[in-house]
Amino acid sequence: MLSSIRTVWLVFLHMFKKRVTIEYPEKKAFLAPRWRGRIVLTRDPDHNERCVACYLCAAVCPTDCISLQATEDENGRRKPEYFRINFSRCIFCGLCEDACPTYSIQLVPDFEMGEYKRQDLVYEKEDLLIDGQGKYHGYNFYRVAGVAVGVKGKGEGENESAPVDRKKLVP
Amino acid sequence: MAKVFIDDIEYEVPDGKNMLEVCLSLGFDLTYFCWHPALHSIGACRQCGVINYKDENDKRGRITMACMLPASNGTRISIEAKAAHDFRAGNIESLMLNHPHDCPVCDEGGECHLQDMTLMSGHNYRRYRFKKRTHTNQYLGPFLNHEMNRCIQCYRCVRFYKDYAGGKDLDVFAAHDDIYFGRSEDGVLENEFSGNLVEVCPTGVFTDKTLKQHYTRKWDLTSAPSVCHGCSLGCNILASQRYGTIRRILTRYNGDVNGYFLCDRGRFGYEYTNSKKRIIKALKRVSGTYQPIENGNVFEEVKALMGEGKKVIGIGSPRASLESNFLLKELVGENNFYGGISNTEGNLIKQVINILKKGKVKTPSLAEAKGYDAVFIVGEDVTNTAPMLALSLRQAAKNKPNEEAFAIRIPLWNDAAIREIVQERTGPFFIATVHHTKLDEISSGSFYGHPDNIARLGHAVAQKINNNLPSVPDTDRESASLSSSIAEALLAAKKPLIVSGTSLFSKNVIEAAANVAYALKEQGKDVGLIYTVPEANSVGMTLLSENFIDDAIARVEKERADVLLILENDLYQRIGKKDSEAILKRCNQVVAFENLENETTNSCDYVFPAGTFAESTGTIVNNEGRAQRFYQVHIPRNEVRSSWKWLDILRQDLQTAEAKDFDVIVDEMIQKNPELQKIKETAPTADFRIGTQKIPRSPHRFSGRTSMIANINVSEPKPPDDNDSPMSFTMEGYHGIQPSPDTAFYWSPAWNSVQAINKYQIEVGGPLHDGNPGKRLFEPDENRQAKYFNDIPSSFHPSNDELLVLPLYHIYGSEELTALSPAVKERIPQAYIALNENEARRKGLNAEGGKVEFYYQDKKWELSLKIDNSLPDGIAGLPKGLNETSGIGYPFRTKINS
Predict the structure, then answer these.
(1) Which of A89, B349, B677, B726 has the lowest tally of Cβ within 10 angstroms?
(2) Residue A3 located in a structural domain
C-alpha cells in the first residue's frame, strides 16, 4: 500500500522535471557529427568524385550490401561506373567509412530513410553522391598518389621529386 | 636427404635445394622477392635474410640470404630470431621508401606480393619523410600496363623476359636508385610470353591491361579451373568472371603441363567470350532475318525436323568438348557423324594418334620437354602454333651448357652463377621449317625447305642414326652435311627430343619425325617425340571420328540430307565459301550450335547459343593425349549453355527441357568408347564433397552479394546449383587445400598473391598436393616393334609458272576465336603473301607492300607482298586464318600476278 502511494508520488514529481522525449518529427534530435547514419559519397576539393572504385568498402561490408564496378575516364582516373548500396541490408556499422582510403564514403547524421517498399532502399551513385566534401575537408587522394591521371603530372604530387632521366648514368 | 635445423628443430629435406625453398616447402612464412621457383635465386633483394649458425654452440650467427644458402647437412638457421626479423623489416622499409601511395588504384592491390611481404615482415609504419623518386611510364602495347613508380628493383621481370623467355626488348636502364625497367623507347612488348610479367612482378609495375578495362579485385572474382582453348597444348588456366562477364585469365599451376606460365594468346585471348557478337538466344531464320524463339518450341520444331526416316548428318568440332562431339555422334548416329576438319587434316591427326598409341617413343609433356638436352624441330613454327612449347624448348636448349656448371658443383638454383658460366650459349638445337622462325635465334643449324625436303632431311637423319634404313636418294651436299651433324648431335645427347606437327599439312613430315625418334630409341636413347596438332580438342574429336568434312560433302552431293547439325564450327572459315555452300545447299535444314555469330550461322535455319569454355563444362584432349577437365565459370543469365546440354535435350523426350548431369554423359561416353576410360579419373565426380562441403568458386571475401542485382530485385535469389561438378558458384564451401583439378583460386592465410601456389604444392615448384590434374589416355610401349615409315618423298622442284602456297602461322590471328578479342586484334599482322626476293623478281614484283593477285578456288585474291628471303624458291607463304585469308585450304598451287 505504502509503496503504491510512493510510486504515485514519484510519478507526480516527474511532472516538474525536464522532458527527455522530443516531439519528433516537429522537433529534431541533436545528432553528433560522427553519428553513423545514411551513407554518402563525397567530392574532393576540385569537385571531382573522391571514390576511386578500390572495392575496399565492398570487401569490408559485413552484410555485403555494397557493390560497384570500376571504370576509367580518358585520363585513366578511376571511378565507379555504378555504385550501389542496398540500405535494406545496411547495418550502419561504419566499417566502409573506416576502410575508405580517400574519405569518399562517409556516414552522416541522417537516419530518415523510411520507405514503404524495400526496393526503394536500393541507392545508386546518383542518390549517394553529394556536392561537398563531407566531414573531411581538403583531401585529394590523387595529389598524394603516384599515378598521373590528369590531377597532377608525374613527380608533381606532394612529397615527390621530378621524374628520373633514365638515360642518365651519373653515380 | 639432408638434415637441417630451423629454429632448433630438425627437418629432413631433399638434397640440392636452397634454404628458402626448403623453408617455404616446410610451410614457413619467409619473405622474399627476387626468388621465383622457375627463375631460381640471385640473392638480389635481400629480403629472405635469416640467421645462419656455424653449429649448435654458435649463439651469435650471421645474417645470410636463405635463397643463397645451400640446404646441406647440418645447416642451422633461425627465421624467428629478433635480429633476422628486424633485418627483414628494415630491408622492406628501404624497399618501400619510394613506393607510391597507389594501392587503392593499383590493379595488383589485394593480390600483391609486396603487400603480403610487408605485412609478413612486420614493417607497418612509414618513417621516411623525404621526397619519393618518380618515373615516367611507357606504352607497352595492348596487353600490359606500365607503372614504374611502384618498382622495388627485384629484377624478376628482366630475368623472366630475357633469360627465361628469350625476349630482347625489355631491359634495365640507369643506375643506383634510379634504375628503370622498360623498353629503350615506348612500344609494344614483342615477346609472346610478356603477359607472365603480370604474375612474375611482385607488385603492380606490370598489370593486365585487359583486366583494367573492366577492373575487379581478386577477392570478387568467381573463378573456375579451366583449360586454354587457344592451341593444342591444353595449358591450365583460371578463368574469372564478375557480373556475368569474363574478366581475366591467370595461369593455373600444373606441374606436368604449363607450370607457372602462359602465353599471351592464352592469357589475353579470352575477350571474345564477352563479344557483342555472342549468340545469346536460340534463333530461327524467318524470311531472311533471325528471330529469337521460345525454348520449348525450338526443341519441338527441331525434333520434328529430325523425326523418323529423316536423313540427318552432323559435323563435329575440334574446339568443342569430347562430350559435345560424343552427343552429336549419338544424336545423328555413328555413320552420319563427321569430324569437323578437312580430310587432309583428319588423316594427319589420325596418323599422329596412331604414332602416339602404337609407337614406342614417349611423348613428353610440356613440363617434361624442358628436361631434354638436344632438340630437332621437324617442320613446325612452334612459337606460333604452340607457343608454350617454344618456351619449354628454350629451357631445353639450356640443359647442355648447364652441365658445365653442374660439373663444378654449382647447383641449378644458383641462377646468377649458372648464367655467368653459360652466357648466351645453347645446346644442340636444330630446326627444319619452311621459313625463318623465331627459335632460329637459338638454333645450332636451321634448314628452310618445302615440307617434302624437310621430310627428306628427317629421313636422312634417321638413316645416319640407323644405317639399316633406306638412304635418301639425290641428297644435295648441304643437307647431307646438315643431316650428319644433326644425327651426331642427337646421338651425343642423353635425351634428344624430336618436335613435329601437322601445321604444314604434310604426312611425310610427321613420318620422318617418327623415324628419327624410332631410330634414336633403337640406339638406346631416352628420346621424346612431340607432335602439335591444330586445335584444342583436335585429338579428342578425331578419336571419335571416322569420317571428315570432305566425306560429308561427297555424301550430300550423292544424296540430299534433310538436316545438317553443325557443332561449334565455322565452315566458311574452315573450308572456304565454295565447299561450305556446296554442303549447306544440299541440306534442307541447317542447325548450328555456335558461340559467336559468323558466316556459317548466317546461313543456318536454326542457331543454338552454345557456351564457350567459360560457360561450359567438358573434357578436351591435348596434343600428347592428355585428357583434361574444364569447368564452367558461371551460369549466364541468358540461354547460353554447353553444346552437350542442347544436344542431350534434343535427343530426349519432349517433356524434359533439362539435360542429364555431366557425369551421366561421361559414363555413357566411356561405355561406348572404352579407350576414353581414363577421363573419368581426370576430376572428381559431382557428388564429391569434402566433409559435407562443396568446393567454392569464389574466395571467402567475395563482396556485394546482397547488392549486385538489387537494382533488379531487392530480394536475393537462391544461388544457382551446379549439378555437373562438385563446385559451388559462391563462396560457400571448403576453403582448405582442394582436389587439384577443382582448385578455382590460390589463397592461403597471409598469401593473397598468386605466390600462394607454394601452399598448394607438395614442395615448392613440385606437383600439386594430390597430383597434377589431367590423365594421359595413351602411353607408349617401349618393347613394341614399331614399324619405320619407308615412304621417302622425292625432292621438291619449283615449277616456273606456278607457286606452291603454304600456310605461315601467327600467334595472334591464326586461331579463330582468340583473334576476335580486341587486345589480340591489335597484334594481328596485316595480311600478306610472302615470297623470297628471287621469286618476286621473277614474277616482276619488287616493292614490298605492292599488290599481288592470285587465284584460289576460281576466286581472285589480292594481298600485299612481303619479302621473306628465308622462303625457298617456288614457295609462297600466306598467313593462316586471318580475316583476309580465311577459308583457304593448304597447300595449293597458284599463279600470281602483280
Answers:
(1) B677
(2) no
